[in-house]
Amino acid sequence: MARKNCIAIAAALALLWGCKNPDTKPVGPVAPAATGDVLVVCEGSLGNGNSALTKIPADSAQAASEDVFYAINGQQLGDIFQSISYTGKELALCINNSDRIYFINPSDYRLQHTISVAKPRYLVPTGGDRAYVSSLFSNRVFVLDLNAHAITDTLFFPYKNPEGMLLHDGLLYVAAWDTANAFLYRINPVQKRVADSIYLGRRAPQTILADKAQNLWIVSGNDPQGVRPALTCLNPKSGAILAQYDFPAGKEVMKPCLNPTRDTLYWLSVDYYGGAGQSGVFRMPITATALPQTPFVAAENLQYFWALGIQPGTGNIFIGDPKGFTQRGEALMYNPAGALLKRWKTGVGPGAFYFL
Amino acid sequence: MRCLYLLNKKFLLKKYRKAVGTLLLLPTAATAQLRDTLPEQVISGKRIVAAPGTAGLKTLSIDSDRLLRPALTDISRILTENLPVFVRNTGINGPATLSIRGASAAQSMVLWEGIPLQNPAMGLTDLSLLQSGLFQNIRLTSGGSPALWGSGNVGGVLQLESEKPRFSQIPETGGFIGLGGGSFGLFNGMAGLRRSGPKTSWAVRAFGSRADYSFDYFPENGPQKHINNALAKQYGFLAQGAQQLQNGFLLRQDVWAMQSQRGIPPALFEAQSVKQQRDEALRIRLGLEKTAGRHELRIAGAFMRENLFYEDADVKLESALRTATFFGRAQYEYRFPKGRFFADAPLQYSLADTRGQSFSQGRLALAAGAEKSFWNEKLTASAALRAENTDAKTVVLPGANLRWRVLPGSLLRASVQRSYRAPTLSELYYFPGGNQDLKPEIGWSGEVGARQDFRKNSWQASVEATAFYRDIRDWIIWYGGAIWTPHNIARVHTKGLELEAEGRGSFSGNEIGLRSGFTYTQAQTVESAAPNDGSVGCQIPHTPLTTGRISGWISGKGFRLEGASVYTGYRFITADESAWIPGYWLHSASASYALALRKQTLHFELRCNNLSNEKYLSVAGRPGLPRHFVAGVMWGF
């Protein structure tokens, strides 16, 4: 009897699973098995086709492999390697100026698939073998079938340069980095449509993060185009602006990230007129009431950091120094207190980190 | 005259003095024109005189018989086949820039009739926009001598010289029409007409070309790539006038206009390309010259307008750069026994307009120098001093040269010069990123050279070796993240060796010749202001350590066969020598025949470029053209 009950319960669960509510919130895949390795997205220099995938081994005493993609697959990545995402079974490498996305095996980096996508920037899996890809210079976000490795739909936005995306609480938030845009867009990833938008009050949103309180932090701005950078904290449920900080003109703010406990924001800032000591890595608790005035890790004169990441397991801070994009860059590892621990040579133009 | 002159060699001038005198008396300008275009002519009607103050500098020249051919050849190919320079082609239909002795494009000066052709915003000259057939002579003076030519002359100067006015008591008319075609749907044409009178002379040359350089590229590794979006069209003209005024003054006018439209093909790493570039240029020059006894005065003024429009619909990018340059110059020369004194006062005002913003730069210089020969003209020394003021910042540029004819046929040279390049308008004001605090690149350069000539009966040969050294501080490099800014970052030492050899002889009315050259250029960053800069101790990117060239010809009875091979050594494409482009050889061959009629000639030529169908990259990801043919016919009258 008990066995029959178990079977019945199992069958009921299976039926429920099979007929799951279409409104179930989609979630992205969990990260691949942690190895402690760090992948460095090396953009290369625009127009030279010299992107590279550098691997820093978990054993920090070892040298980095400057281009594991080339070493394994015998071909160059292309021009402007923008981002890495995990799709659940593969790593997706967006090569912006080569209009393609490579899918590689996360364990041996062997190339599995290649697809053509116009100016891909970031890929966000939304569950159900589906992913969304933002695209520079257009107003499109592409919907990707991760099984078929093919574009199945295209979503159009009122503004161009869909850039940063975040899957949060079942909705995909999209920042269109257009100097005329002051909205954050929400996509229902199941229905594949733009659900609504949230007014930010600051133009050119670029990157979105979610802190431990489930609030969103949006970095916006394009200083060379006359839009001062800003940092906005938003309650995504109510759309209320909880905090907003404006950076002074002449500052460039980019590559924000959160520490593993998601209670402290880090970002790179360049002050083109401030001279030495005004540029580098800045950090701020999410409860702070004012922007920090001095960098946590200061860049030296003629040093322009271009990549920032915090290792989930250790809290170590990884910084990319592209050295003018005319030579191999460097990855610098600092401990959470800001002490330099180690530096590695990378490919040209280290622009982002992906922690395995 | 064969195409390559080694100037400042008195024995050569002596050899040709009689012939030159004879040719100056040739009856028609048409004949003279014809002689300039026919390769089998041994001498031309032009008298080449070294510029004052260049006695110890190495100067090479390409004459009109190589510049104006029935199978028209682009100027980059002519330069690399004949001169110790490196031309950096940025791919099919892409800009091509000059590098002399490891100097950057902004440090390698290009002059047209003494007027700087460098775009004042970008500081470089796009050689792909220059038509070789417009010029009568191209002269390369290697080694920076800013004391003579001013800012930007760090590696050397390439001088483009138009046809000189000719006057005739009996009005004469002559000209030519050339038509060519070949691979890639190439069609080109050039026509020239000139008329000489007792007091007036005018000439015009017009050109046009069209080609679609699309092809399939099969790399050694990787998939086949279709190179498309490669249509290129170019047309323009150069008109010249000259009048002999009263009191011995010569008034000259030149108008040079051109337009170019070209598609920029995709690189191997690009999925596609719809990039388009349009260039327009208008250059107007007025000159007044007078020679009276030992005095010579030249005054010139010029206005130059250049527009560059670039569009990449793929990335929604459209840009326009408009520049205007006003240039004026007064030069005076006084010849005294076994020497001369010279003075030069150029003035330049440049404007650039891009993205709705305008920037300007003013430059004024005063230069003076003297050249004097000693010991029965065995030793010639020259020295010059220039004060150049750019936007209210003045720099003093000295230079001195020495030439010593040790024995008949043996020559030693030495030169020491202050090197200098002022920042360009883009480096100062480009938005975003321009740096108005930039200092000029400045340093010293020096060279020593030796030349030995041999002659026996109708055979002659020469070998020449030059060693050079240059130390430049405050080398400007663009650095940054999202915004790049030029900074005075590096100190660069350049040292190298140039070897030239030539031999030729005639037998039974035929001529045979062989010419070769080799360069070794080590241009290394020795200091850097950037932290942990991996470029220290490394070769400057895009500067080949070695280049070589060898060419030979045989001619007779109107026929001429030529072959040329040019080697470009591997080039680093990163500042820390971590990546490079392999070296390659490019071979070419041509056959021509000149049919002389009574007062006319027909000249046929067939040329094959990249004879061995070498697969090579001119820059990263951009392959050069495969084997292709050009045929042309030129009618001279």
Written description of the protein model:
The complex is a heterodimer of chains A (about 350) and B (about 625). In chain A, about 5% of the residues lie in helices and about 45% in strands. Chain A is mainly beta. Chain A has a domain at about 160-305: Methylamine Dehydrogenase, Chain H, CATH 2.130.10. Chain B is mainly beta. Chain B has six helices and 36 strands. In chain B, the strands form six sheets. Chain B has a 22-stranded antiparallel barrel. Chain B is globular and about 65 Å long. Mean pLDDT of chain B is about 90; it is low at about 1-50. Chains A and B meet through loops of A and strand 25 and strand 26 of B.
| Largest β-sheet summary of chain B | 22 strands, antiparallel, barrel
Shape of chain A: globular
Main beta-sheet annotation of chain A: 4 strands, antiparallel
The greatest interface between two protein chains, and residues involved on each side, is: A-B, 41 and 39 residues
The percent range for strand residues of chain B is over 45%
Tally of separate helices of chain B: 6
How many beta-strand elements of chain B? 36
Please identify the top-level CATH class of the domain at 161-305 in chain A.
Mainly Beta
Assign the CATH class of chain B. Answer: Mainly Beta
Share of helix of chain A, binned: under 10%
* Number of helical segments with 4 or more residues of chain A: 2
Helix content of chain B: under 10%
Termini of chain B, distance in Å? 20 Å
Q: Give the name of the CATH architecture of the domain at 161-305 in chain A.
A: 7 Propeller
* Lateral strand order in the biggest sheet of chain A: 3-4-5-6
The overall pLDDT of chain A, averaged over residues, is 89
CATH superfamily of chain B: TonB-dependent receptor, beta-barrel domain
CATH superfamily (homologous) name of the domain at 161-305 in chain A: YVTN repeat-like/Quinoprotein amine dehydrogenase
